[in-house]
Specification:
The chain is of the alpha/beta class and about 525 residues long. The protein is built from 15 helices and 24 strands. It has two domains: about 280 residues, FAD/NAD(P)-binding domain; about 220 residues, no CATH class. The protein is about 30% helix and about 20% strand. Bound molecules: ligand NA7. One of its GO terms (molecular function) is flavin adenine dinucleotide binding. It holds the Pfam family FMO-like. Keywords: FAD, Flavoprotein, NADP, Oxidoreductase.
């Protein structure tokens, strides 16, 4: 590759929902002439490209796990879409809006330096590309950088060991002895999907989770027609609600209901399926009142005891802490433990001491043999996705240094001292169904750029004071929620060495939109145009 620097209007990093949306907006709405997309995978899909493990599917209903303006006649015919269908959806949409060919695949951005003289971003990749761009957009996803335990002996294992987001292409685990380490959404989906085909499945649990059923099911033509008839109303609900899932969130306190009523509500929504539904459609204060939260927690524990017949396993699977963080659901997770080939190892009381050539050794000396070990151990989330890129703003300031003790940005889209850098789903953005939140952020970034162009200014960036205030708001809201009391990637306390810090604005998409509308209405008082 030549050392030639290619001058472009914008570089967009990431080929998932975020990157494809932004590329489309910059090219077709802002009407920039040259926009390049850079994606480390070999195709589009983002999260859904990387997470190709058995059982990978969304837990947001198909009709709202998309952008509101992509309403063409529905192809989907199930309540939730599998990873493969979502990959296809993203590719198809990029082909339709003419942006697929603008992506370079199998390429990672290594550095992006803002040049104060030219007011441009100098961007280089691991394959030797060099770009000079007016705008630099990072849509690198919030769960992208795998977190793999640092067990001694990890390289000595002779079987296959890999992170859940790096499932080897074509690997079939039928008849194999498999270890799944981790019981979050990835670990529980994998467990529910493979337990019947493997010879032996051992689930290593560090902390028990609250996992509700999914209830994926076919959606027939009649139901689809009904959904499309009410589609405007459904999307109004998405944009006015907290979590943008398309259902009406309850405003009633769990504590106002009688025990009988609570049981009826929990039972009904449990049977309906969906983690977010269970947490937010049942009652309105599970996320804010410890007492209310405990009523839901107790219900889930009672369900676990009902489903898992072996009392010792049931007890281990029953969480003891608050019910919070990202609400989980998985198909057939608790049911899997009824199978004779499935067992649970409590690594909270007996941790993994090392990996050996043949498997896993526990602290008490017990040796377990495996053909395959899956690390479903999560991600260095949100700012963790930026860890391997050297992003330098004004005066040589490095983004990873600025974020060292808690990553923050203005509205999840802009960072002071990094002009014309636009983040999609950056720290401090809304915690909600992702495509609608990307849609909202994309529209806002579009408006910011158009405003800058209209003013004849060359750059736009977050005002330092405004960013600080937003960060205070984000952290203060988080502090009054149960989320702040539960260890999870949402609070950045799932990875050793990371500072606990809320990664999200937890007051919902509706309130986030209201805040952005205030900005647009007031001609962007929180931004600096130069
Ligand atoms: P999560 O939700 O972060 O879950 C990771 C799981 O791995 C969780 O059970 C962790 O236990 C466990 N874990 C993490 N580190 C270790 C080590 N070192 N040893 C053993 N177990 C460990 O990640 P997922 O991939 O499941 O889901 C991420 C998101 O993707 C999810 O929220 C969806 O939005 C999609 P812990 O509970 O922390 O004690």
């Amino acid at each position: 590759m030549s050392n030639e620097v290619k001058e472009v209007d914008a570089v967009v990093v990431g080929g998932g929902f975020g990157g494809t949306r932004l590329l489309n907006l910059l090219k077709n709405k802002v009407k920039l002439h040259s926009v390049v997309g850079i994606e480390k995978g070999e195709s589009l899909g983002g999260t859904w490209y990387w997470n190709q493990y058995p059982g990978a599917q969304t837990d947001t209903e198909s009709w709202v796990y998309r952008f509101s303006d992509e309403r063409e006649p529905p192809k989907w015919n199930t309540r939730y879409l599998k990873g493969e269908a979502l990959r296809e959806q993203i590719v198809e949409s990029a082909r339709k809006n003419g942006t697929f060919e603008d992506f370079i695949f199998g390429t990672e951005v290594r550095s992006a330096h803002y040049d104060e003289g030219s007011k441009r971003w100098e961007i280089s990749t691991d394959r030797g590309h060099k770009f000079s761009a007016t705008y630099f957009v990072t849509a690198v996803g919030i769960l992208n950088n795998p977190n793999i335990p640092t067990y001694p002996g990890i390289d000595t294992f002779k079987g296959q060991a890999f992170h859940s987001a790096r499932w080897p292409k074509g690997l079939d685990v039928t008849g194999k002895r498999v270890a799944v380490i981790g019981t979050g959404p990835s670990g529980s989906q994998i467990t529910g999907a493979i337990n019947k085909i493997v010879k032996q499945l051992t689930v290593f649990q560090q902390r028990a989770q609250y996992i509700t059923p999914v209830n994926n099911r076919p959606v027939d033509e009649i139901e689809r027609a009904e959904i499309y008839k009410n589609y405007d109303t459904i999307w109004d609900t998405v944009f006015q609600s907290l979590f943008a899932m398309g259902f009406v969130e309850s405003k009633k306190s769990a504590l106002e209901a009688s025990e009988e009523e609570r049981r009826e509500v929990y039972e009904r929504v449990w049977n309906k399926g969906g983690g977010f539904r269970f947490f937010f459609e049942t009652f309105g204060d599970l996320g804010t009142s410890i007492e209310a939260n405990e009523t839901a927690a107790a219900f889930v524990r009672s369900k676990i005891a009902e489903i898992v017949k072996d009392p010792e396993t049931a007890k281990l699977l029953q969480p003891t802490g608050h019910y919070g963080g990202r609400p989980l659901c998985a198909e057939g997770y608790y049911e899997a433990f009824a199978e004779p080939n499935v067992s649970l190892v409590d690594i909270a009381s007996n941790p993994v001491s090392k990996l050996t050539e043949t498997g896993i050794e526990l602290q008490d000396g017990k040796q377990l043999e495996f053909d395959v070990i899956i690390f479903a151990t999560g991600f260095d989330s949100v700012d963790g996705s930026y860890r391997n890129v050297d992003i330098t703003g004004r005066e040589g300031v490095k983004l990873n240094d600025v974020w060292k003790n808690g990553a923050t940005s203005l509205y999840g889209v802009s960072v002071t001292q990094f002009p014309n850098l636009f983040l999609v789903s950056g720290p401090g953005g809304p915690f909600s169904n992702i495509p609608p939140s990307i849609e909202v952020q994309g529209d806002f970034i579009t408006k910011l750029i158009l405003e800058s162009q209209a003013r004849g200014t060359k750059t736009v960036e977050a005002d330092k004071e405004a960013q600080g205030k937003w960060d205070e708001t984000v952290q203060a809201i988080s502090a009054v929620t149960i989320f702040s009391k539960v260890k999870s990637w949402v609070q950045n306390d799932n990875v050793e060495g990371k500072t606990k810090y809320s990664a999200f604005f937890l007051a919902g998409l509706g309130n986030y939109i209201a805040k952005l509308e205030e900005e647009t209405g007031g001609k962007y008082p929180s931004f600096r145009f130069e």
